[in-house]
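Section: Multi-chain targets

For targets with more than one molecule, the full set of components is provided together so that the structure can be written out for the assembly as a whole rather than chain by chain. Components appear in the order listed by the source. The example entry contains two components.
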Amino acid sequence: MTRPALLDVKDLTVRFRTPAGRLTAVDRLSFDIAAGETLAIVGESGCGKSVTAMALLRLLRSPPAEISGSHVRFEGADLLALSERAMRDVRGNRIAMIFQDPLSALNPVRTVADQIIESLKRHTGLRGPALHRRAVELLDLVRIPEPQRRAEDYPHHFSGGMRQRVMIAIAIAANPRLLIADEPTTALDVTVQAQILKLIVSLQKEFGMSLLLISHDLGVVAETADRVLVMYAGRKVEERPVADLFARPLHPYTRALMRARPTPGQRRELLDEIPGIVPSLADLPPGCAFAPRCAHADEACARLQPVLEGVGGGGSVACLHLGRLAGEKPRAPILEGVPA
Amino acid sequence: MSAPVETPALEVRDLVVSYRTGRGPLSAVDGVSFAIRPGETLGLVGESGCGKSSLAKAIVQLVEPTSGALKVEGHDITGLTARERRALRPKVQMVFQDPMGALDPRQRAGTILETPLKLNGVRGKAERRARVASLMEAVGLRPEFIDRLPHEFSGGQRQRIGIARALALDPAVIVCDEPVSALDVSLQAQVLNLLRKVQRETSVAYLFISHDLSVVEHIADRVAIMYLGRIVELAPRETLWRAPLHPYTRALIEALPRMDPGASRIADKTIVGGDLPSPFAPPKGCRFHTRCPIAVGRCAIDAPALSDAGDGHLVACHLAPGAVAAPTAGAVLQPA
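Its structure, encoded as tokens over all components, is:
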């Protein structure tokens, strides 16, 4: 990366104490995000993507969570070392977050104007009537029709898509440098999902924010991210610029994920299944966590944990057989035949 | 499909499902007609509030249709007595979105699968045991899982139990209501493949309901698009994908996220605006006209009928090229 990183995460590890033992939900994860850039973290349930987001903002209760790492550097400070008081000035102010379910993130008994004003009061110098004016402006900015009138409505008066717009208005109220969006459109219908993603991306440009997008949906990631980090069982298995990843995925897990999804316009009789299930974090195999489900795995994969190797374009992949996989041609083009 | 005149596995004609609610009457399904052949999959796509779940519930007799006909293998179930209806009930089964919620947490897998057999007159215990074993094998569950409780299975395995239970009584139709929406991608593929394999072996018909057009495009032979209680387009899978005629279908296809960052980025897309209007007060005329990018004056006044644009491609749009007005009910009900 030529641009200086806004967020620089090095060896972030999150463990949970549970009755079943100590689980490593995030295992020595490193990544960075430049100013204005979009990084997507993609993976299936339990891969550690949401825990990563929560850990960055130190939103995990400890115990049971134990967060460690070399550093999480943001705007020159190490978020892991900040006092709780200093952290409160980062949260919602310099780094804002939106969640999958806006209804449970909003206060049901206060108007949306009140909730935006609360954020403005806490994080900006605005006072008096300017607060309400700005709240209405923000609702307009997130394209809520008739913002003046809707400002006095309560969350339950809004549809799911409109509630997510309200959440976004609250999130950008303080003009944050980084927006973390954790599955922001997963609960929404297809057309509304596209509206919200388009809105997030356009606000990102307008405000010059960086975006950390957490998603399970490779399609959403492909259309939104600049770079993509693929996680499996708490570890990074591949990180690539978005065009490289989808043109030529290298890690067997990334490839398998892409081939397991139906590709519209190019029907296959059967999808390529990924056999088995995600391993329990309490009982990870000693070697590569994906080895038991991997078509390329051999005896070494079961024993040795692969390290991340650079693959050009700023990408990296953790697979013992990277040399062989990078050399072979992809089995079949997976992206052709999609009408424009 | 080869057979020229076949009794459809399921035929739905002018079906209306209305509810009386505290906010006034609600027409969730407003005159829907289609037929599904044995061994065929009809995909039904629509966003929340379009009425697809009410339609599913009416088909499996969980709600009473307000009017219209429902025929299972040629037998109209709407005119029957409760007793007669019960006899036809095994013919229509359902697979639910949330397999955990659809399975009794205190029943073991074997009991879950044996119960429908018991209730429907399979008397011999040995016979039931054998049937349960063959059902488990058909959906890829190991025989030793028979004594497990639902929480001891993974999400994908639970959905397999749901599918096995639906198959227990040799149904003509299975209504699959978002069967993979709650599953991770790697498990979705397993369940979609299983559904296809089961259909090949049993010729069961599927009504496959989903909000995800890419999943439907994979599994369905024909696809119906629903908007605010009505079918706005119905076409063979390939035709619908390559040459959609209804502006709403086009909007859904455009909104679908694609794994092709070179060609498809959200910032460059034209996304249909607005929210779904309230189903309590659907717009007059074409129900999509309030969001339609090409609507003209007429669209706000006349409701377009579902018309045949050729080759079994039905569309309800005044502006669709080639759509012939006023189809007979027969044209709707007799797929090519």
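Residues 326-336 of chain B have pLDDT under 50 and may be disordered.
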